[in-house]
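Translate structure to sequence.
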């Protein structure tokens, strides 16, 4: 559980990036957002209501993400959209239009959050 006053999205992003660097799987749900890391060293920030996604780490290395945050609000620079099809995590990059299908993520757990 996250206390609204002490909550900083940027801190949660750094936490999940560290888990990815350790190749440790974690899933965190904060309000409408989901952050997760995988044993492969990847990490993502997701908004299931709009199927928005931003990669936070790849193979244990952090990826840049743009977050504007104040004491009461935040805005995220989303990089694409995702969907889950059984065991497959499918990501479409907004800039390139490239579609990636990734296996091995905790898709069952991700679809059951909410």
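Result:
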């Amino acid at each position: 559980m996250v206390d609204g006053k002490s909550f900083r999205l940027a801190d949660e992003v750094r936490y999940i990036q560290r888990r990815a660097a350790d190749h440790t799987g974690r899933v965190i749900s904060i309000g409408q957002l989901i952050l997760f890391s995988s044993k492969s060293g990847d990490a993502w920030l997701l908004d299931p209501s709009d199927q928005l996604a931003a990669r936070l780490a790849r193979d244990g290395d952090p990826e840049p993400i743009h977050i504007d945050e104040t004491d009461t609000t935040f805005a995220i620079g989303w990089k694409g959209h995702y969907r889950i099809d059984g065991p497959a995590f499918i990501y479409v990059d907004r800039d390139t239009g490239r579609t990636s299908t990734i296996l091995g993520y905790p898709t069952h757990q991700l679809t059951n959050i909410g």
